[in-house]
Design a protein that fits this description.
CATH superfamily: Pseudouridine synthase
Helix content: 10-25%
CATH architecture: 2-Layer Sandwich
Number of domains: 1
Structural class: alpha+beta
CATH class: Alpha Beta
Radius of gyration: 18 Å
Largest sheet: 10 strands, mixed
Order of helices and strands: EEHEEHEEHEEHHEEH
Number of helices: 6
Shape: globular
Distance between the termini: 31 Å
Strand content: 25-35%
């Protein structure tokens, strides 16, 4: 049973768990469970996905309940009018706050499969991509994980201003603070440390809040979700229980 965060006659939002695909994908042909189908069966209505979360990312996932709503809200996402907030655990201590302004080229198809290096799709010019971030907490562990005698990690809040594919994961790698658990853009030695030390086998990235104009009356609608249990366990294990996890 999916956790429904919000529902009215036009929209429904769920708390997507890590490891669940939004919809059927050729890249994971063995998968038989998808958020779209599970929600459709749960509420007995056709649903329209309005944005995406990677399979490994948990958090707020929004659907429309009719085609007109899908078009209206889809336009908000395309114009970057929807405000999204994420939490992530990253390697190292990034600055207290900043903006990552780093254009991203198209390297993947709509299913997440990587284009060959010589493909025409990858020859297209990189598109502007902006991510605001704020460091919420940090920790230094007396563990030699990489080449340093201690290991530093941080909890960060991420506010993407554009919606490029895998933007947050690629941007965090770009500033040398990759997200823990990221098999594609992370650092394997730190991922393995979290697996062995904490039993953490997931990407530590979660969408915790979405704000948009309601498609019916234009009012500001904010939908929030706390980190799911596996993420919350890591926040506790790293000593960040008292950290503010929601926006001001």
């Amino acid at each position: 049973m999916l956790d429904i965060l919000y529902r009215d006659d036009f929209l429904v939002a769920i708390h997507k768990p890590s490891g669940l695909l939004v919809h059927r994908s050729n890249i994971d042909r063995h998968e038989t469970r998808f958020a779209l189908q599970l929600l459709r069966d749960q509420i007995g209505l056709r649903v329209f996905p309005l944005h995406r979360l990677d399979k490994a990312t948990s958090g707020v996932l929004l659907f429309g309940l009719d085609a007109e709503t899908a078009r209206t809200v889809g336009g908000q996402f395309e114009s970057s009018a929807v405000q999204k907030r994420y939490l992530a655990v990253v390697r190292g201590w990034p600055p207290e706050a900043g903006v990552i302004d780093h254009a991203l080229s198209r390297q993947f198809d709509e299913y997440g499969r990587k284009f060959p290096a010589d493909s025409p799709e990858r020859a297209v010019a990189a598109l502007p991509a902006l991510t605001e971030f704020r460091r919420l907490a940090c920790v230094e562990l007396p563990e030699t994980v990489d080449r340093y005698p201690t290991s530093r990690y941080a909890l960060v809040e991420l506010m993407p201003q554009t919606g490029r594919q895998h933007q947050l994961r690629r941007h965090l790698k770009h500033i040398a603070h990759p997200i823990i658990g990221d098999a594609n853009w992370g650092k394997g030695v730190h991922n393995r440390f979290f697996q062995q030390r904490y039993g953490c086998h997931r990407l530590l990235l979660a969408c915790t809040q979405i704000s948009l104009s309601h498609p019916r009356d234009g009012r500001l609608l904010t939908i929030a979700a706390p980190p799911e249990e596996s993420f919350a366990h890591m926040i506790s294990a790293l000593g960040w229980e008292g950290c503010r996890l929601t926006a001001d």
